[in-house]
């Protein structure tokens, strides 16, 4: 595995910061458009997503500064992010479908990589595609395209990382670049949704 450089570690915080901005933006504009229970789920998912990314970025920074290799900070990313994506997906899907139920039961999953990878993929898909549907419903086709593009890039990056990540620096830079691009697409799409909702003053539920 190539050593993690300080510049690589610092760049890792950029998508985390952008993700935090996107999450705060979406929490704010969806506050009155989600059932309270689902909005709480969305906030929890957003917190876990940002927290997971922050801790992994911190791991890289500590490694680059040669302070220590706290592997747990890296290992937490998959289960924490997987859980976050599922919570975000549940909240977003229920928002666009108008689901009124206020109770959900969540089964505990085995502590292995495969369930959490599945959680991340299906959660990410549900979240991004729900936002794309909402965009098309608001007649913001461009925003819908941004969310779909973000999903394609994130899915492609995940596949590349799983197949070809052998610890080389190039894969780190590819992943960071893709992550930053995805967060920019999400921020742009969310901004378009917000503008449309303000202009039309309409709820998300059908």
Key phrases:
mainly alpha
Protein architecture, described:
The protein has one domain. 77% of the residues lie in helices and 0% in strands. It starts with 5 loop residues before the first helix and ends in a 6-residue tail after the last helix. 34% of the residues are buried. It has helices at 6-11, 13-29, 36-64, 71-75, 77-97, 113-137, 141-164, 169-200. It contains 8 helices and no strands. The radius of gyration is 17 Å and the shape is globular. The longest helix is centred in the last third of the chain and has 32 residues, at 169-200.
Give the arrangement of secondary structure elements:
Layout lengths: L5 H6 L1 H17 L6 H29 L6 H5 L1 H21 L15 H25 L3 H24 L4 H32 L6
Helix pairs in contact: 2-3, 2-8, 3-5, 5-6, 6-7, 7-8
Number of helices: 8
Q: What value does the average pLDDT take?
A: 83
* N-end to C-end Cα span: 50 Å
Low-confidence stretches: 102-111
Share of residues in strands? under 5%
Largest sheet: none
Global outline? globular
Question: What helical percentage do the residues reach?
Answer: over 70%
Q: H/E order of the elements? A: HHHHHHHH
| Estimated radius of gyration | 17 Å
- What's the domain count? 1
Structural class by SSE content = mainly alpha
Q: How many extended strands?
A: 0
């Amino acid at each position: 595995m190539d050593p993690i450089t300080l510049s690589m570690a610092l760049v890792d915080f950029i998508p985390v910061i952008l993700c935090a901005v996107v999450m705060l933006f979406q929490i704010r504009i969806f506050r009155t458009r989600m059932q309270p229970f689902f909005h709480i789920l969305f906030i929890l998912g957003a917190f876990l997503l940002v927290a997971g990314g922050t801790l992994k970025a911190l791991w890289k920074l500590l490694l680059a500064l040669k302070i220590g290799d706290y592997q747990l900070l890296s290992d937490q990313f998959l289960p924490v992010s997987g859980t976050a994506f599922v919570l975000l997906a549940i909240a977003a899907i229920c928002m666009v479908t108008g689901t009124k139920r206020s109770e959900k039961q969540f089964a505990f999953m085995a502590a292995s990589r495969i369930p959490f990878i599945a959680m991340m993929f299906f959660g990410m898909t549900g979240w991004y595609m729900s936002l794309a549907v909402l965009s098309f419903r608001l007649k913001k086709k461009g925003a819908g395209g941004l969310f779909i593009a973000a999903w394609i890039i994130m899915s492609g990056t995940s596949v590349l990382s799983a197949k070809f990540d052998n610890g080389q620096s190039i894969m780190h830079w590819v992943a960071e670049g893709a992550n930053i691009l995805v967060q920019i697409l999400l921020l742009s799409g969310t901004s378009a949704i917000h503008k449309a909702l303000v202009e039309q003053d309409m709820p998300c539920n059908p």
